[in-house]
Records
---
Amino acid sequence: MASHPSPPRTSCALTPRSRTHPPPTDEPGVMPNTPHNPFGHPADPLQPPPAREPPSSAHKIHDLPALAALRERARAEGRRVVQCHGCFDIVHPGHVRHLRYAKALGDVLLVTVTADAGIDKGVGRPLIPQELRAENLAALDFVDWVHIDHHPTAAELLAAVQPDVYVKGREYESNDDPRFRKERETVERAGGSVVFSSGDVVFSSTALIGAMEQSVDPTHARLAALHDRPELLGPRLFDRIARFRNQRVVIVGETILDTYVLCDRPDVAGESPIMTLRPLERRHYDGGAAVLARHAAAMGARPILITALPTRGPSAEAAEALRRRLTAEGVDVRCVRQDHALAEKQRFLVGTQKVMKLDLVEPPAIDAARLDELVQLATDAASEHGGADAAIIADFGLGLLTPAMVRRLSKALRPRARVLAGDVSGKRSHLRDLEHADLLCPSESELREAYQAHAEGLPVVVWELLQETKAAAAIVTMGPEGLVAFDRLAVPEGARAEQWPSRVRGEHVPALAPIAVDALGCGDALLTAATLTLAAGGDLVQAAYLGALSASLEAQRIGNVPVAASDLRRAVVRLQSATLAFADSEVLRAAHPHASKRPETQQPTTQQPRRATIAEAS
């Protein structure tokens, strides 16, 4: 192996200035009368050294042709090559001792790792992908070469490398495994020797991983169970997200202006014990049905927003700016005129903590003729181009959508949209009037408030909702506890529905946001992503998962900020990559929505699909 010249030594000690020393200088960054180091910093022993990037160990990882060339050079130079081979899923102290022992037996230590496709230790193994396992080993200073072996055993690689010494653990000394027997014969046939390490400390990666799985908390255990489901594999989710593009979605509901007033830390007024706030900045966000449309556009769909906006009065200018903003983002805005001001909800924040909310909402002033016009706009929009892919009725409880209006819209949109979804917000909304929907997305508190059912079990209340509204499914959000997706359980033939005890089935998806910075708009993001998933041909579990993921992204942002399709793809990778940090180009192509699939002969020969075959290059 080529040696590298060591850098010249430099001294950081102060020395008396002699005639050969240059005179004091005023050059920036150099102290007078003080020799400076090669980095251009003063040689002050009290000052920390400059920050530098740690050296990379990637140069130690070699493919087979490069490894063969290195082996020939070492043989020509008379250097002794020692090889170790294994999975090295989690590099633990036992591995380190084993490799140190091997290094002491020669001049060059080669560590070869079994590729992911060759490991058969159960679902989810290896825990660490092959590229990262190779990097972990290369980072050890006593390891010289690293190679990823794509063969099922090390025999073929041993025949190619012909190490002088092949080191295995002490447990192999009495092992009669035919695979190891072939490896030993290959080494000895080429003139090498097989040595067993001391085995004074024994660790097991499998045992360590098993112990970690047993100690995992319920949230992570539930996520692991979800990620084992075939419909939640990354490539399938990427395909659903890709199919969001160009979906025609009709969105009907009230438009709200959400204003965040950022304030200085509160104080107590002198005249009485009341809180005092000093506004520093105002931020405006589109809310209500408008943010549903923005989410849909950001995810690749073609939303049509049916709403009411003022055309005169103090908020007419804000309404026109909102229309222009939505149009620029790809939203087709169709509205009826309203005579009252645009609804505004002001929230006062100190840091990220909301301390007060002010609702500037006037009673609606829309006559019957304009309500008829609103229904007609929604009907026409859903009838264009042979029908809509999806329609969403969003009742934010401001008075525009009365119970009669909700029923009229449900009746008009149901035959014209492949997927009909609905959501409500607040106590004045009309959840029970959203009829014949494919999906309803209330919160648990909204659902229980609608039925005044505060003590009954959640499945019982959901069953009442599905029966009354004739809805197919419901996703009930529960704040930090996540959500439960409910759909109807088929009644066995010959049984009466009222006698069937398990009338709904539920799938729990835990909250996916590590920290909820701002809960505003999480339900809107969930409803949009779940509806588009169903419209893209996904099932309820996929809709709930992508909806929860979209809500988690929104929860980590201040204000109503649209979630884009690229955000969702990255979030899928981030959440599911606990067992995959890198993937080869074949997996990347398989994961990409438009990539061609690999031929059958190139598929990895694993017994079960690994849940971690996910990657996305956004």
---
Amino acid sequence: MARVKISQSGEGVQRVVDESSPLLSNTRRGSSSSEVVDSSVDVEQVTPVATASDDPKLQAQKTSTWAVVKIVSILLVGTFTANADGSLVMATHPTIASEFDDLENSSWLFVSFALAGAATQTLYGKLSDIYGRRALLMVAYTLFSIGCAMVGVGRTMWQVVLGRVISGSGGSALNVLGLLLVTDLVPLRDVAAWQAGINLAATVGRSLGGPVGGWLADTIGWRWSFLGQAPIFLLAVLLCWFFLPKGKQVGKGEEGAEARGKPIDIEKSSLARIDFLGAALLALFILTFLLPIEIGGTKIPWSHPLIFILFGVAAVFGGLFAAVEEWWAKEPIFPLELLKHRDIILTYVISGGQVAAQLGLMFSVPLYFQVTQRVSNTVAGIHLFPAVFGNAVGGVLAGYLIRKTGRYKSLLIIATVASMFSYSLLLLRWHGDTNAWESLYIVPGGFGAGLVQSAGFISIQAAANPKHKAAVTSGMFLTFQIGMILGLSCVSAVMMETMRWRLDALLEGMDLSAVVRKQIIAKATSSVDYIDHADKKVSAAVVQAYVEGLGFSHGFSLISSALALIAAVFVREHKL
């Protein structure tokens, strides 16, 4: 194996570069030095050659920009389609679940996706360090393709949910690997700008996914919305195979183990370096902690012994995970030392709170308009666009401002305040007779979410040790997944419980018996189409109960953003 030692001028640091070096160098270019980058891509494209007549910083910036453009262009295919999938499900979930007479379980179309993502999220960062970003990205695209195909051919609600689980296990890698590929190439200060470009493609996907998916559901059926995605992700696999450079992120695990004073076995296989036990315990902790939140109050009462048993089991798995990561794992899947850093924890709280609030909103908006105005899937999807537009503006603006000023804390505060303003308007004004102008009240919520997506990543990258880049990035996306599950589960539970309670009270006022009331509530929570077939007075009661339930869900979003605001106030800003 040929090895070349490169000396870092100005710091006296030597780095060994060979054919197993990182895919794209984890370089931070400062004001006084720059590193030579090694990978299997064309040397003329990536490796700047410093001469007496050339400015090394300008040369590095020029060539790195070209490399990033090539890689990001490939990432955009999967990013666009995956985000279109998300808004597509948001727009059509009432129709999909109603086809199986299972509307009350429609949140599982999202929760199953997010649970699978949370269970696999932390593995992708470490696996990509060992096997390379390209290989893991191809696996992720393949899983997403298989999952979409299974959803399209599913004949029961739970077959569809299984397809969402497989898609979620692949989808959890797309964002984290994309961000890692970008941060491998560019200085931290420029990451937000490049990420904003990726976010823009994601936003376009989310913008088109709802209306186009709704239109397909109204014309040829919702199944083709998913079947059509499968070949697109297979195309993305081929693009990765032919155009993404090969390479591996190696050596960082050994550095981390050495820093923690733990033994290093340099002869062990790459697979043995993976902390599978830690990953399994983390997945079990997340599952057993979030499952009672999802089923409590809807499937079984909150006072049911199973709820307490699941929370107790979650505590056991959480303790075992902490013990394994601290004393057993040589290369932890998530170094617990990161949880000792105040700014990392606070940024996770901000991101999780904002995602929970915004996903709760995105879940409720299509249902609100389908219930109150009986709109088609296409129109329900269009009603998501204001929030998506706000998200795009927030993401692009954050990237520009961070690159221009090097500051991000104020953006986190502005984001949470904007979101709180949005949810307050919904609480005060959305009571069933919403006009076109009032439907724009969701714009500030999307704007705040977009700001946090860009500023939050910069906050954790600036606060963390560079050797933990993959871990903190995976942790951020894990936070997104947990926030998504909490938001969807809590909003669904609050909305359905309030709806049942209010509908029962309204029906009781019509002098209906308990048996009849129970039958009506079961039908109303199984399909939104029941509104069209019920008696006029009963139909009006169902709509009113849904509106009040959705109002309480906006209250949850407001509380989540308020917690994020408190965390944002105490985040320390690091110099970029």
---
Amino acid sequence: MIQIFGLARIGRDVEVRNTTGGDAVASVSLAFNYGRKGDDGKKPTQWVDGALWGKRAEVLAPYLTKGSLVTVALEDAHVETFRKADGTEGVKLAGRITAIDLAGGGQPQQQAPAPTPKPQQRPAPQRAPAGGGFEDMNDDVPF
């Protein structure tokens, strides 16, 4: 069994589907950098398609967004062939994700600015009635 362990970036937002049996499966595009930097100053990238199954796929999908840095372990890594848009045949690495953790360094998401809180006015203190305030109480005990 071939395994892959490493630090990778999510290549695109995760897509979650359900099998006919109702199991959730998330497709995760992983970019692993390897080797030495080239003349352009960048390391080569190896793309791997990972499949995350079950409840973890549903729970983690909102956090696995494009650009997120993750540590990941894949099992059953294998080469798959596919048909490219131009009609030629391509190959890719694929595997089943057995462990994935967010490592930080994702793309910051655009958030709306927090609303400015309005100053709260305190109600004016009320004076207690002169008689101790018990005149309006009913003498019947409710229990």
